[in-house]
Each structure stands twice: as C-alpha cells, then as structure tokens.
Amino acid sequence: xxxxxxxxxxxxxxxxVAFDTNRLDRMKSRVRDGEHKRFRKDTVPDxxxxxxxxxxxxxxxxxxxxxxxxxxxxxxxxxxxxDRIVVLRTIRTVPPxxxxxxxxxxxxxxxxxxxxxxxxxxxxxxxxxxQGLEGRRQAAxxxxxxxxxxxxxxxxxxxxxxxxxxxxxLANSYVQEARRQGRNDLADILAHVPxxxxxxFHEALQALRILHAVVWxxxxxxxxxxxxxxxxxxxxxxxxxxxxxxxxxxxxxxxEFFISLNKDSDLYPGVQQxxxxxxxxLGGTSRDxxxxxxxxxxxxxxVAHYTNxxxxxxxxxxxxxxxLSLLTLATQLTRKGLGFPQYSNDAVIIPALVKHGYELExxxxxxxxxxxxxxxxxxxxxxxxxxxxxxxxxxxxxxxxGLGQGENFEQICQRTAEDIRQQLQQLVDAYRKLFLPPAxxxxxxxxxxxxxxxxxxxxxxxxxxxxxxxxxxNAADALAAVRRFVFEDKSVQPQELxxxxxxxxxxxxxxxxxxxxxxxxxxxxxxxxxxxxxxxxEWFADACEAIQDNGRGGRVRPGTGSAMYYVWLAxxxxxxxxxxxGATAEGRRKGEFLSANLAPSNNxxxxxxxxxxxxxxxxxxxRVFNGGPITMELSGSVFSDAxxxxxxxxxxxxxAQLGCQQLQxxxxxxxxxxxxxxxPEKHKNLIVRVWGWSGYFCELGPExxxxxxxxxxYAM
Amino acid sequence: MKSGVVFDIREFALHDGPGIRTTVFLKGCPLRCxxxxxxxxxxxxxxxxxxxxxxxxxxxxxxxEELAAxxxxxxxxxxxxxxxxxxxxxxxxEQAEFVTEVCDRLDNLHIVFDTSGDxxxxxxxLVAEKVDxxxxxxxxxxxxxxxxxxxxxxxxxxxxxRLLSSLGASFVIRVPLVPGVTDTDENLNAIAETVRNLPGLxxxxxxxxxxxxxxxxxxxxxxxxPLYDEQRELRxxxxxxxxxxxxxxxxxxxxxxxxxxxx
Lengths: 716, 263
Description:
heterodimer, A: alpha/beta, three-stranded parallel sheet, globular, B: alpha/beta, TIM Barrel, two-stranded antiparallel sheet, 8 helices, disordered C terminus
C-alpha cells in the first residue's frame, strides 16, 4: 500500500486522485446540471389522512411517515446505467403528519427548536453499519421482551421496528430493480446491506448512503456524517490488505459516494442553499488516545479535492504535532475555495469536553454538528444552538445606561456582565419548554435507544444546550474604545459619545472614525482589547456555569460562533429572542454587520493573520467550548505557488500551536465576487463559505453576498 | 534612540522571503520608478490619503524599541516557521540607522532587507552587518534608460551591489518585469552578465508586472502616468539567465488568479 504520509512536501501533486476520472467526471457534470431531477415526482404520499383515520399516536405517525416515504421511493427505484452507489430521493417534500391546527395545539406553550424535528446531531454510523439493520432489529426485539408491561416502551420499539422494515423494503425494491436491469453486482450488494454488516468498502458506502438518506426522508435535517475515516476504515483496510481493492478503485468508490451526497441536497430544509449540515469529520485522536489518521483520512481529502462540490463538508481534527504534510494536503483543498476543511484542535477541545463531564473516550470521539459545535456521535442529543447572546447588545446597554448615569468603567462592565446573564437566562427559560418530537428511525441509529426502549427525543448520554457568543470582537472593541477615550485619555466626553450613538454618527464622522480606527482592536494582539474580549467570554461562561440543569439533565455550553446572528443581531429578525443593536461605540453604524464568528470587527485596521490568531488564542477555551471558528478569508493569490501553499499550512499549524480552538479558512477573490454579483450566469459554480457552511454564491440573498464581499475587502 | 517612519506592517507576507514573515514598510524613497505601486512610500513624512472610506493618515513614527517590541511579540512564531522579519519600503536604506537599531533589539530573528540599492555606501555597510539575506532590485543596466524610468542614476546601485558581494552578504536579485522596459533580451542579458560571477548571489527572481500598480495614486492626489504601454504583453523571459547558468525563477504574481472556479 502506498504510504501517502511519506510523500515529501512539495512532491508532485500529492492531492491528485489516482483513478481514471472519466466516468465520474460525467456523473459530476450530470449532477451539477441537475439531470437527476427529472426523476422527481410531484406527488407526495398522504400520510396525514391515514394517521388521522387510524387515530395514530405521535410516535406511530413518525414511523408511518418513514414507512410511506420508503414505500413511495421503492415504487420507482432509480438506477442509472453507470451508478455503482444508488438511492435517489425523488419525492420533493416530506408530508405533514399533523394538520396545522392540531400541530399548533400540540405545540402550544412548548418551545420548538427551529423547524421542530430533531436536527443537527450525528448518528453512530459505525455502530449501525457493524450491526446491520437486522442486528438493530434484534436489539429491539430483545428489549421488547423486558418491557412487556410498559406500553410506551413497547410502542416505541414497535415504531422503531416498523422503520427498520421500511428501510429494508426500500433496499429490496432496489434489489429487484437492479436484477431487472441485469445489474447483479448492485443487487447482491443491496441484498446484503444495510441489513447486515458490510463485507467490503463498497457495501459500507452503499449502506451509509441509504441509511443517511432515509433520516432526511423522516423530516430530520442537518444530518451529520461523523468520523467517517474512523468507522469506514475497517472496511477499506480489509479490502486494501486483501488486494480486493486498489487504492485507485477505492478512491473512485469514495468519489461516487461524495457525489451522491450532492444529489438530494437542494431538497433539504435549511437557511440558505448549501446549509445542510452534511459535515464529515476526519483525523484527530482515536478513542484510545492514539493518532487516528489513516489512509482514508488522506484519501477523503484527495477525493473532496477531486469532486470539488459543496458536500460533504470536510472537517479536519488535528493537534500541534500533526504532520505538516497532512496540513499541506488540506491546504490544497482550501485552495479550491470550497470553504473547507474546517480545522479543530484536539489539544484544546478534548480537555475542555472532559472538564465539562464528557468521558475521556467519548471526548476523543467528538465530531461536529452542522457547523462547528462539538458533539459525540450516537451519544449526544445536544441542542447545540438554542440561540445567541449578543455581546454587542450587552456592551451597548452597559455603555448607554452606565455613561448616562455617570458611572465608572467598572460599573459599565458589571452592567454588561449582568446583561449577558439576563440574555442567557431568557434563552434557557424558553428552552426549558423545549419539545422534541418522537424520532423512531433516528433512534435506531443511536447508542442505547433500542436497548433502553427509549426514544431519542427523551435524551441520550449527553443532553447539553449550546449558545453562540456572537459579536465578541465588536463588543470588545466598543468597551476598549470607551475605556481608552472616555476614562483613560478623556478625549471623549460621555455625553458626546451618547449623542453620537443616538444620532447613528450622523454629523459625527470624524468622531466615528476616531472610534473605528484609533481605538484598541481585537485582532492586533493588543493587550487592552483582547483582555476585554476575554472578560466578555468569562462573564458568558460564568452565566452558563450558573445554570445547573437545562431541564433535560444537561448544562449550557458557551460558544464563540455567531452563525447567522452576525446579520440578525445587527439588523433584527422577525421572531428573534435576541436583542438587536443600533450604532455601537467601536464606530459601527446601525445595521452594519457584526464580525462573523471569531474575526476582527469589519472596520478594524489589522496587521494580519498572525496577530489575529494571537488575539483569539487568549479566549478561555476550557470554559468556552461549544465551538465557533476563527474565520479568515485568504485571497486566491495567496496560493500562487507550492511554497505559498506550504506557508498556509504552517499558518494552520501555528493556529494549533498557539492554543486556538477552531479555524475556517476561505479562499476567494474580490474581483470574482464582484463579477459574480453582476453576472451570476457566469459564476454558477462559485462556492463561498458563508458561516458554518459553504454554498453557491449566486444562490445567496443579496445581503449575504454583500457581507461576503465586505468581509473580503477587509480581508488580510 | 532612533525613530523611523513606517507606512505599513504586513503579517504573513508570502513573497518577501523564506517562511512566515512580517514585513515592515519604511517610508521614503529616492527613486520614482514609473511602475511603482507603492507611491505612499515615496515621501518620508506622514501624509493623508483620501480613500473611499474617507481620509487616513499614513506613516507612523516608531522608536526602534517600539517597533522591535511589536515584532518580538511574534518572534517565536516567525522562528518556528522558518521565517522572520523583512524590511522593505520605500527604500529602507534611507533609514539604515533606525533599521540597525531595530535589528539589535530583535530576538534572534532572520532578517531580509528588500532594497533598490540606491543609498550611501555607509548605510549599506551598516545594515550588511545585521541582515541575513538581501532582496536587491536590479531594474535596468542601461544608465540612460534607468534615469528615464526611475529618475535616478544606476551607478551607485551597481557599485553598492559589488560592495555587498565583497562584504560576503547573500542576496537574491529581484527584477521587476515591466513590459517593453525591463523584459527585453538586451536588459535581462545585461543583468545576467552583471550578477553571474558575484559570489553572494543566491538566485534571480523575475517579478511579473502587476497591473494593479496604479491603484493607490489617485488616493494620494497623484496621477499614474506610466512611461510604457501597460497593456503590452509581458515577456516572462528567463532564458538569458539560464544561458548564463544563473539560478532563476519567476516569482508568483500578486495579481489575483483570474480563472473562474473550475467546473
């Protein structure tokens, strides 16, 4: 077997795949052109009528939905002549299981998370693959014996079994169709998986494809793919060792699997196109503490480089000691401009998880939810994004009230801390009424749900909430400006600042520029600004740690991301629990976006990425551990030659060495973005990372396009 | 203690020397090269530029202690990534005493000195003691053409280069390729002949012309009037160097990659 890790730095194109790409080039272009959409049907199974007619309970409705969706898909299995991995979604929407009126009655006085169905978690794919659905059915049957007198548990298990049988029936429909087409290769595979443990890598990929697709058919979304190179490796290794597969043939299968993840993704619910949470984690530390990087880690990056599509979204775990050549390969993927890989630093994340009650082996097994929030596949029913604390709003309230009453800086800080606490309390209070609908099929894919005869919606081993700490750089810069100009050099009168904020800086332009340009700024390794950012996160962590129970037997995890809140907190959004903020004391006008995730304020003069990393390395990540990346845009010209690519890899390594937690690098050219806004038809395939996800630029709303452009203007 | 005028500090400067580097741009330059893309580096004194986002003062005074302290905050990172600090400009020889004082205060960092060579012999001797690697520009060997396109005689530049080599310094020769001006066979051949026997020569870098050169002029109230045809096709001509067995490479252009995202 070729040892990819031995390829020296700068070796000729180690990122290139070894297989003949003809077949998949054609498949890729068919998927890009949407040719598979011709199979889509306008009819949707009417699940609601039968549920109402039979007076089914909620769990039974959820199971019936999965069954009817699988049956409907099974009526018209799609196998194209060159497909080697199949299952195509043809039904555009997931039908309702309650009418709107009943739904609103049932959910009255309850808090629903986003759209309602369980989302943004990750199954234990490795467990399900290795047991097969038959193994899962046996687990359910066994549990059934011990809960004979518990109707709820019985009902749950029966529902779970109904969904297992539905998926097996769907697989069987594909077997029939494959036989009809003379595709005995495919028929043999689908006759074995997902019912049983895969006998080879090809079967494992096929099993994952169908198991994963059905989760979406049940109305769930942001369905993560977990530690792909870990749970898939045994199947690949066996094939490579036995000579059953060459490396090139394995790459080709993997590439087809990756392409297949792009077929249904426009049908997935999400905030914007591309925001579908098909996150795939690679690398890192194994459950026993060893280096988990294997041949599949390298292969997956190479194949993602080849497929060059928005799914799956590649994440890479690493440590300060990870081989630079792996980071160099990953940088070649960054160069593609897909907005990934996103990097996570095991050396920071694992100890933080352990400190907060995660078992060491579980902590070593973390993956990410749709965007970046850490969770343990199969063991976490965590709601990692119950909302955001607006740090700029907290600081702004402190400044306006504090200065208005002639208070000193310490008192303004106290007000800020208290505001953060209240914002958090409001979110947590709302989520104490959280209602998660039953999810019998998803439960099959989790650790212990069948064994304990308890639906996933009742919780798993880890049941924490996560909250974004949004706008930290803006907030710290605002506090720093007040401390410097109002309290230290006294060059600004409190009343003048308040009047300028009230006037949204109209008529105060030189004053605004002083605040925006001359104050201490996060991102310059400036002790004054960075210390205040650290304070903000400490107040946030204090508030989270003060909440002993989130109502689901978990705690509240503070994070560093902003998600969409960098827009919403600046401009407001209908129905948002979080406060919107007006003009702010770091010289930001009302309505201007906050910085996304961890990035300097958009108007701050910054020396470059080293100082940015140094600033964000100061965050107390042991306490602030929900995730949320440092976000940097690199100009495409940065990757002009192999030497420069190597330097970007060094920058990534520096991020880990400094003790930062998570990093997103995006590659894009301002010129291209401006042109794409003007001539979208010419840039159909332009992909940008927007926050937690990558999407097609031309499919973003104009406000998001503008923000990506604005971020780029200030980019280093 | 000396102080100097800096018009920019850029981290992660990818094309200013080996490894991860931070580049300090010193303000003030004796040359007025027709293709200069940093006109904000011409005048030593701080000045106002009028950008789209309003006015901004460029040029900041630093004492050698302040600048060295700023750079030393990153020393571990720069060292660990085979990099260091680059002094550029403007023309850093104009502030040679300041630069040497800063160097004395740096925490064991690799130093690149990016110069046009247009300065006094004293200045060059001063910095040569502190610098690990010179980036030394040679633009035109013909003295009349040099005067025409840069406003200055090239005699001191050429004699300083010989001096530098005799001092045992290492240097990369940097040739900005300007269409129809410096990219001719004749000029590149003359440069190759000038440098081929100098013992300190590491290699020659050819720097393709950057069509964004005129970008900063209007903000400074200046007009960009190149004495050559910007649109003329550039000759990426390494052959004269290869012929003289001078190691040569074409440095990455800072121009954005224009290709759309490949399908």
